[in-house]
Amino acid sequence: xxxxxxxxxxxxxxxxxxxxxxxxxxxxxxxxxxxxxxxxxxxxxxxxxxxxxxxxxxxxxxxxxxxxxxxxxxxxxxxxxxxxxxxxxxxxxxxxxxxxxxxxxxxxxxxxxxxxxxxxxxxxxxxxxxxxxxxxxxxxxxxxxxxxxxxxxxxxxxxxxxxxxxxxxxxxxxxxxxxxxxxxxxxxxxxxxxxxxxxxxxxxxxxxxx
Length: 210
Description:
- There is one protein chain.
- This protein is of the alpha+beta class.
- 50% of the residues lie in helices and 19% in strands.
- It has a six-stranded mixed sheet with strand order 1-2-3-4-5-6.
- Helix 4 crosses helix 7 (168-183).
- The longest helix is centred in the middle third of the chain and has 20 residues, at 85-104.
- The chain is globular, with a radius of gyration of 17 Å.
- The chain starts with a helix and ends in a 14-residue tail after the last helix.
Protein backbone atom coordinates (compact mmCIF):
# COMPACT_ATOMS: atom_id res chain seq x y z
CA UNK A 1 0.00 0.00 0.00
CA UNK A 2 2.96 2.37 0.43
CA UNK A 3 3.15 2.91 -3.34
CA UNK A 4 -0.51 3.95 -3.31
CA UNK A 5 0.20 6.67 -0.76
CA UNK A 6 3.19 7.88 -2.79
CA UNK A 7 1.07 7.95 -5.93
CA UNK A 8 -1.47 10.14 -4.21
CA UNK A 9 1.21 12.60 -3.28
CA UNK A 10 2.28 12.87 -6.90
CA UNK A 11 -1.20 13.84 -8.02
CA UNK A 12 -3.01 15.24 -4.96
CA UNK A 13 -1.12 18.19 -3.48
CA UNK A 14 -3.34 20.97 -2.21
CA UNK A 15 -1.78 24.27 -1.13
CA UNK A 16 -3.82 25.62 1.78
CA UNK A 17 -3.98 29.15 3.23
CA UNK A 18 -0.99 29.89 5.44
CA UNK A 19 1.34 27.46 3.67
CA UNK A 20 4.96 28.63 3.68
CA UNK A 21 5.91 29.05 0.01
CA UNK A 22 9.22 30.04 -1.62
CA UNK A 23 8.49 33.61 -2.75
CA UNK A 24 10.24 33.36 -6.13
CA UNK A 25 8.05 30.49 -7.26
CA UNK A 26 4.97 31.01 -5.15
CA UNK A 27 2.42 31.63 -7.89
CA UNK A 28 3.66 28.88 -10.20
CA UNK A 29 4.10 26.23 -7.51
CA UNK A 30 0.71 27.03 -5.97
CA UNK A 31 -1.05 26.89 -9.34
CA UNK A 32 0.73 23.65 -10.24
CA UNK A 33 -0.18 21.96 -6.97
CA UNK A 34 -3.77 23.16 -6.96
CA UNK A 35 -4.29 22.10 -10.57
CA UNK A 36 -2.99 18.59 -9.84
CA UNK A 37 -5.08 18.31 -6.70
CA UNK A 38 -8.29 19.53 -8.32
CA UNK A 39 -7.91 17.22 -11.30
CA UNK A 40 -7.08 14.16 -9.18
CA UNK A 41 -9.93 14.75 -6.75
CA UNK A 42 -12.33 15.23 -9.65
CA UNK A 43 -11.34 11.82 -11.02
CA UNK A 44 -11.39 9.99 -7.68
CA UNK A 45 -14.81 11.32 -6.71
CA UNK A 46 -16.52 11.03 -10.11
CA UNK A 47 -19.12 8.29 -9.61
CA UNK A 48 -19.96 8.23 -13.31
CA UNK A 49 -16.51 6.87 -14.18
CA UNK A 50 -15.68 3.18 -14.15
CA UNK A 51 -12.61 1.95 -12.31
CA UNK A 52 -10.84 1.49 -15.62
CA UNK A 53 -11.71 5.02 -16.75
CA UNK A 54 -10.45 6.49 -13.47
CA UNK A 55 -7.24 4.53 -13.79
CA UNK A 56 -6.69 5.80 -17.34
CA UNK A 57 -7.30 9.42 -16.32
CA UNK A 58 -4.93 9.17 -13.35
CA UNK A 59 -2.23 7.62 -15.53
CA UNK A 60 -2.62 10.47 -18.01
CA UNK A 61 -2.35 13.01 -15.19
CA UNK A 62 0.78 11.29 -13.90
CA UNK A 63 2.38 11.42 -17.35
CA UNK A 64 1.61 15.14 -17.65
CA UNK A 65 3.00 16.12 -14.24
CA UNK A 66 6.11 13.92 -13.85
CA UNK A 67 9.27 14.09 -15.98
CA UNK A 68 9.40 10.34 -16.45
CA UNK A 69 12.10 10.27 -19.13
CA UNK A 70 14.50 12.37 -17.03
CA UNK A 71 13.91 10.12 -14.03
CA UNK A 72 14.38 7.00 -16.17
CA UNK A 73 17.75 8.21 -17.45
CA UNK A 74 18.87 9.34 -14.00
CA UNK A 75 18.07 6.06 -12.25
CA UNK A 76 19.95 4.08 -14.92
CA UNK A 77 23.01 6.23 -14.24
CA UNK A 78 26.21 5.36 -16.11
CA UNK A 79 24.49 2.43 -17.80
CA UNK A 80 22.37 4.87 -19.80
CA UNK A 81 25.47 6.32 -21.42
CA UNK A 82 26.74 2.88 -22.32
CA UNK A 83 23.44 1.58 -23.74
CA UNK A 84 22.78 1.12 -27.45
CA UNK A 85 20.14 3.23 -29.15
CA UNK A 86 17.86 0.19 -29.30
CA UNK A 87 18.31 -0.48 -25.58
CA UNK A 88 17.68 3.17 -24.70
CA UNK A 89 14.49 3.22 -26.74
CA UNK A 90 13.07 0.02 -25.25
CA UNK A 91 14.20 0.86 -21.74
CA UNK A 92 12.36 4.20 -21.76
CA UNK A 93 9.21 2.58 -23.15
CA UNK A 94 9.25 -0.09 -20.43
CA UNK A 95 10.28 2.32 -17.69
CA UNK A 96 7.44 4.73 -18.47
CA UNK A 97 4.90 1.93 -18.18
CA UNK A 98 6.54 0.53 -15.05
CA UNK A 99 6.64 3.86 -13.21
CA UNK A 100 3.12 4.89 -14.16
CA UNK A 101 1.56 1.57 -13.16
CA UNK A 102 3.76 1.31 -10.06
CA UNK A 103 2.50 4.63 -8.74
CA UNK A 104 -1.12 4.52 -9.85
CA UNK A 105 -2.01 0.87 -9.20
CA UNK A 106 -5.05 0.60 -6.91
CA UNK A 107 -5.17 4.39 -6.54
CA UNK A 108 -8.79 4.47 -7.65
CA UNK A 109 -9.77 2.51 -4.53
CA UNK A 110 -8.00 4.88 -2.12
CA UNK A 111 -9.93 8.04 -1.22
CA UNK A 112 -9.67 8.36 2.57
CA UNK A 113 -6.35 10.23 2.93
CA UNK A 114 -6.04 13.81 4.11
CA UNK A 115 -3.19 16.08 3.00
CA UNK A 116 -1.52 19.21 4.26
CA UNK A 117 1.27 21.00 2.43
CA UNK A 118 3.45 22.48 5.15
CA UNK A 119 6.09 24.34 3.15
CA UNK A 120 7.74 24.90 -0.20
CA UNK A 121 11.42 25.89 -0.20
CA UNK A 122 14.14 26.16 -2.87
CA UNK A 123 16.45 23.17 -3.21
CA UNK A 124 19.91 22.54 -4.65
CA UNK A 125 18.54 21.41 -8.03
CA UNK A 126 17.25 24.87 -8.87
CA UNK A 127 13.66 23.90 -8.17
CA UNK A 128 11.47 23.72 -5.10
CA UNK A 129 11.05 21.04 -2.45
CA UNK A 130 7.45 20.65 -1.36
CA UNK A 131 6.80 19.09 2.04
CA UNK A 132 3.49 17.29 2.46
CA UNK A 133 2.00 15.75 5.59
CA UNK A 134 -0.05 12.68 4.69
CA UNK A 135 -2.74 11.83 7.22
CA UNK A 136 -4.42 8.43 7.13
CA UNK A 137 -7.14 6.94 9.32
CA UNK A 138 -5.72 4.59 11.95
CA UNK A 139 -2.14 5.19 10.82
CA UNK A 140 0.74 7.47 11.72
CA UNK A 141 1.20 10.66 9.73
CA UNK A 142 3.78 10.42 6.94
CA UNK A 143 6.09 13.25 5.86
CA UNK A 144 6.78 13.38 2.15
CA UNK A 145 9.00 15.76 0.18
CA UNK A 146 8.84 16.05 -3.57
CA UNK A 147 11.00 18.03 -5.95
CA UNK A 148 9.41 20.28 -8.57
CA UNK A 149 11.27 22.35 -11.14
CA UNK A 150 10.80 23.97 -14.52
CA UNK A 151 11.31 21.92 -17.67
CA UNK A 152 11.99 24.03 -20.73
CA UNK A 153 8.93 24.17 -22.91
CA UNK A 154 6.84 22.03 -20.56
CA UNK A 155 6.37 24.04 -17.36
CA UNK A 156 6.68 22.58 -13.88
CA UNK A 157 7.38 18.87 -13.50
CA UNK A 158 7.93 16.48 -10.58
CA UNK A 159 11.45 15.00 -10.53
CA UNK A 160 11.63 13.12 -7.23
CA UNK A 161 9.69 12.17 -4.15
CA UNK A 162 11.08 11.23 -0.76
CA UNK A 163 9.07 9.39 1.90
CA UNK A 164 10.40 10.00 5.42
CA UNK A 165 13.70 11.12 3.86
CA UNK A 166 14.08 8.18 1.44
CA UNK A 167 14.39 9.39 -2.17
CA UNK A 168 12.59 7.43 -4.88
CA UNK A 169 15.14 8.19 -7.59
CA UNK A 170 18.13 7.45 -5.33
CA UNK A 171 16.60 4.14 -4.26
CA UNK A 172 15.72 3.12 -7.81
CA UNK A 173 19.17 4.10 -9.06
CA UNK A 174 20.78 1.82 -6.49
CA UNK A 175 18.42 -1.06 -7.27
CA UNK A 176 18.64 -0.72 -11.05
CA UNK A 177 22.44 -0.40 -11.09
CA UNK A 178 22.72 -3.52 -8.93
CA UNK A 179 20.51 -5.48 -11.34
CA UNK A 180 22.36 -4.29 -14.45
CA UNK A 181 25.80 -4.92 -12.95
CA UNK A 182 24.84 -8.50 -12.11
CA UNK A 183 22.53 -9.51 -14.97
CA UNK A 184 22.80 -6.88 -17.68
CA UNK A 185 20.63 -4.12 -19.08
CA UNK A 186 18.54 -6.40 -21.27
CA UNK A 187 17.51 -8.34 -18.16
CA UNK A 188 16.42 -5.12 -16.42
CA UNK A 189 14.43 -4.05 -19.47
CA UNK A 190 12.63 -7.40 -19.51
CA UNK A 191 11.98 -7.22 -15.76
CA UNK A 192 10.42 -3.77 -16.05
CA UNK A 193 8.03 -5.11 -18.65
CA UNK A 194 7.19 -8.14 -16.50
CA UNK A 195 6.62 -6.04 -13.39
CA UNK A 196 4.32 -3.70 -15.29
CA UNK A 197 2.03 -6.63 -15.93
CA UNK A 198 2.20 -8.29 -12.52
CA UNK A 199 0.40 -7.77 -9.22
CA UNK A 200 3.76 -6.98 -7.65
CA UNK A 201 3.78 -3.56 -9.32
CA UNK A 202 2.31 -1.11 -6.84
CA UNK A 203 3.38 -3.13 -3.80
CA UNK A 204 6.66 -1.23 -3.42
CA UNK A 205 8.87 -4.02 -4.74
CA UNK A 206 11.96 -3.33 -6.79
CA UNK A 207 12.51 -4.22 -10.42
CA UNK A 208 14.14 -7.51 -9.53
CA UNK A 209 12.17 -8.42 -6.39
CA UNK A 210 10.46 -11.77 -6.06
